Amino acid sequence: MSTEQPPGGEHEVEGLPLRDEGEAEQEAPPPRQRPPARRLTWQRLTVLPSFLVLLLLVTWLWFRQADLDTISRNALSGGQVSKALWQHVQLTVISTFFVLIIAIPLGILLTRGAMKKATPLAMTIANMGQATPAIGLLALLVIWLGTGTKAALIGIIVYAVLPVLANTIAGLKANDPTLLEAARGIGMSPLGVLTRVELPLAVPLILAGVRTALVLNVGTATLATFGGGGGLGVLITTGITTQRMPVLVLGALLTIALALLVDWLASLAEVMLRPRGLEAGA
Amino acid sequence: MAETTPSHGATIELENLTKLYPGNPQPAVDNVSMEIRAGETVIFVGPSGCGKSTTLKMINRLIEPTGGRIRIDGEDVTRIDPVRLRRKVGYAIQSSGLFPHMTVAQNIALVPKMVGWSKGRVRERVEEMLDLVGLDPGEFRDRYPRQLSGGQQQRVGVARALAADPPVLLMDEPFGAVDPITRDHLQDELIRLQRELHKTIVFVTHDFDEAIKLGDRIAVLREHSHIAQFDTPEAILTNPADDFVSGFVGAGAALKRLNLTRVRDVEMRDYPTVTVDTPLQQIFGLLRGSGTNEILLLDKRRRPYKWLRRGDLMRARGSLARAGTLVHDTVTRDATLRDALEAVLTDNAGRVAVTGRRGAYIGVVDMETLMNSVHELLEADRLEAMEAQAGLEEARSQQTHSEQEGHGGETKA
Fold it and tell me: Does the residue A63 lie in any domain?
């Protein structure tokens, strides 16, 4: 066989410097590298917290001058408000934790090989969990497990699994198959492909699901009171049954403030945890 | 580069490789056998859907073969752990396959890290690889793939494939998604790399011109990955095995043949030259004395500057600055004959100056020299092909003969 190398020359145009072999040639101008954009703008950091502070301040000022009767005073005294708030936060955090450790691994499992066939079934069940009215679900759980935090927690979890599960599956499925093949092709193990390519690329979608679940959980946790699980729902129901507006309003406002705060924190997490290379401005 | 001797290519043997997909009675790849020599660039070329990509992916077992064997460097890799196999085989794909959430450096470092190189060595290797593919490490290391142009991404893709210094490199239409000019540059770059590295490269493309440019040998594949012809580019161009191959080679095989020869390999004419420092008297003397009516004026660094005809100097009243026509186009010694032909055709006087180091003048090619060289080339190719065919027939008749004699028991291919 002739060992002649296929030539790689080209003719030169006048005025261009002649290219020595091995010299890098000019190419289409690369996109200019910008300094990495700040992920957290000051608007994102300040607008919502200041709104919340304002909201709570107005509420507090109103309560200072409000003329409360004994029933209202009883309902709000003795650290009951802070206790309800604390319970509510606990319910939200614990339920979200369980939602994550159930839904994300389940989502991963349902996108692996043989388990793919079970995806429609799992999604149907998760859909049923969310379609069932939360309060009905809670009632059934209370009948089954008795009153207490446990029944309330399970109810909240069942209700919030769907968004995280759906987004995990969607995020993993949205990954470019040629990219995954490239990952296998360069010698990554199946676990390596999952942890180093699939999950990082699915992070934005998974986090969006988590954010939805968190906000849902703050809302559903108000229903915990019907199962004896405490939380800010206690203030609301007390306000309704005793027909005391201030109690009801305080419970509702605190729930709203908490939901907004949680959503804000989750949005920060979303921004911070998104892989740098995936940013639109990158 | 100093501490590790780069591994050179390994042989690849495919033996009756077959791929059947469930529910399809027709095999996607049917009984392919092929030997690829160490350090050789082999191109699989064929129409889309002919199974060339499938065949390639079976070499690193991204697609598990249904039957047959693969040997790399003599080792049967059909049964070994595919992950281990793939770490020894570089893999580059179309549109680079870079991971968008990792920086350029992280992408390149993936395989070396997986095979357990130390941190320092990995870092050094990343720099070395970026240098190798012509990207400045300082500028590109910490960029994300999105911040690169298509051609740069493809370079990084090649760097990643070569990072752990595998003896074998598989490339699946790697330059399919970039614009023609960038593709041309990347091809040149790959040729340069291969001249340095001597890997065994298996390269899939549907572009026959790309195959001619890059391949030491080309396997033209038809449906089910049947090998229609497996030979050097010259042989395929001048002596296509059948209608399928000649159809695929397409019209203008002789023109394509020009891509395979460089200007340095053909005869050049020596033109009378003068430099800008030559006294006018001497130039006049030369124009009057020499047979041609044209001389080439070189600048101070001996680069072609102007063509001077007999009357030019008179008309310009003896001023070199105003006389003659500027040299528009030159070709280097490394240019292909096709480039040279193009330059000659566009030149209004049908000649072009050839330059060497730093653009210094070497000689001139014109229509006549080109025609002569092309005729010689084609004639030589034809002779070679005929000889090869004669040799093949002889071998065949000998084989038949020995089989008829009855002691050809072990002459099994």
Answer: no
How much of chain B exceeds pLDDT 90, in percent?
15
The nearest CA of chain A is from the CA of B285 a distance in Å of 29
CATH number of B264-369: 3.10.580.10
* Predicted model pTM: 0.71
- The domain of A251 spans 77-277
**Is residue A44 in some structural domain?**
no
Q: How many contacts does A have with B, using Cβ atoms within 8 A?
A: 173
How is domain B12-88+166-259 classified at the architecture level of CATH?
A: 3-Layer(aba) Sandwich (3.40)
**Candidate from B85, B260, B359 with C-beta closest to A6:** B260
Classify the complex by whether its ipTM is higher than 0.85, answering yes or no: no
Q: What is the mean pLDDT of chain B?
A: 84
Record: contact A187-B185, CB cut-off 8 A: no
Interface residue of A2, A10, A11, A25 to substitute, partner B, most B CBs within 10 Å: A11
Cβ distance B103 to A25 less than 8 Å, yes or no, reads no
B332 has which bridge partners? B355
Mutual orientation of helices B119-132 and B104-114 as an angle, nearest 10°? 130
Classify residue A146 as left (phi > 0), alpha (psi -120 to 50) or beta: left
Would the CB atoms of B329 and A13 count as touching at under 8 Å? Answer: yes
Identity at B185, one-letter amino acid code: H
Q: Where are the domains of chain B?
A: 12-88+166-259, 264-369
Mean pLDDT, consecutive 10-residue stretches, chain B (413 aa), reads: 58 88 86 90 89 90 89 88 89 87 92 90 91 87 89 90 90 86 84 87 90 90 88 85 82 75 82 83 77 81 85 75 81 83 84 84 86 82 76 76 62 42
Q: Which residues of chain A have pLDDT under 70?
A: 1-38, 280-282
Residues 17-36 of chain A whose Cβ lies under 8 A from any Cβ of chain B: 18-22, 24-25, 27-31, 33
Q: What is the pLDDT of residues B193-206, one digit of tens each?
A: 888 888 999 999 98
Q: What is the pLDDT of residues B353-409, one digit of tens each?
A: 888 877 888 888 888 888 888 888 878 877 877 777 777 777 778 777 777 766 544
| A276 with B62: Cβ contact below 8 A | no
Q: Give which of B15, B346, B52 is closest to B172, Cα–Cα.
A: B52
| A195 found inside a domain | yes
The CATH number assigned to the domain holding A272 equals 1.10.3720.10
**pLDDT computed for residue B6 by the predictor:** 58
At a CB cut-off of 8 Å and minimum separation 6, what does A120 contact?
A: none
Contact B91 A183 (CB under 8 A): no
Domain membership of residue A142 (yes or no) is: yes
Q: How many residues does chain A have?
A: 282
| Cα torsion through B396, B402, B406, B411, rounded to 10 | -60
The nearest alpha carbon in chain B to A184 belongs to B62
What is the reported pLDDT for A8?
Answer: 41
Contact list in B for residue A4 (CB cut-off 8 A) is: 260-261, 265
Q: In Å, how far are B313, B315, B327, B371 from B348, measured between CA atoms?
A: 20, 20, 11, 17
Chain B CB contacts of A25 below 8 Å:
134, 185, 188
Domain count, chain A: 1
Beta bridge partners of B273: B296
